[in-house]
Known about the structure:
CATH superfamily of chain B: PhyR, sigma-like (SL) domain
Helix content of chain A: over 70%
Oligomer: heterodimer
Radius of gyration of chain A: 32 Å
Structural class of chain B: mainly alpha
CATH architecture of chain B: Up-down Bundle
Number of strands of chain A: 0
Number of helices of chain A: 4
Amino acid sequence: MQKNEEQSRLEAQELQQSLKNADTLSPIEAKGLEALEDVKKSASSGSNDKKEPVIDEARINARIGEFYAKVLADVAKEPIPEDWLKRLDEIDKRERK
Amino acid sequence: MDATAPVSLREGLVKWIPNLRAFALSLTQSAQHSDDLVQDTLVKALSNLDKFQEGTNLRAWLFTILRNSFYNDIRYKKYHQTVPIEEVDPVNLETWATQEKYIEFKDVLKGLGCLVPEQREAIILIAAEGLSYEEAAAVCNCPVGTVKSRLSRARQRLEEYLNGEKALAEQAS
Lengths: 97, 173
């Protein structure tokens, strides 16, 4: 089994090399070379037929942006609690001494 | 400490309070917890103003303090898990342009609740607060590549969640 795979790999390499060496390629040969390159790329990246899910980044960003803008607008309307400011003043005074 | 510096820095702290509250709310999904975090952040920031380098990003520095406090709380209280959505009481929901907008908001809120905190902070810092990858990485104390992968997973999970919600809504109608 392993031997067969190795043989196929060598044959594919040979074919690829001979196609590359040819001065001109017929359309079928060019397609074959392209297909071989694709298989090689796929094998080296370890990927098979699985495709990465396509994420609509712009849509997600827009939804998050809209959500956050609403949160920000709402919290900005809320007054800063008095005790926070008081505490900041106390620490500020202490630090300045 | 420089006597003149704290005045402007204190004002700077106050200026960023809404952003701190929004970030804390998005992280904790709890109004009470987020207010505790912001207050804690302000106290720590003012007590450590001498450690802040003037001319650097004050917002990112404050976010770093808030974020560290958040994870300390998680470790302390051992609630490293998403908050049940029934407990979410994040914002004043009185003004909504349309019912649809309100539903969209709730969907995103629930979606964020499904993310682990590291993914949540990445997407909020970058997609909402507009921090660069480098700034977000500094806030999260991790490599830029880690931030990118967390952001990517966050977007993916959020999209899956939002698509699922949409499918459910369509089925119901």
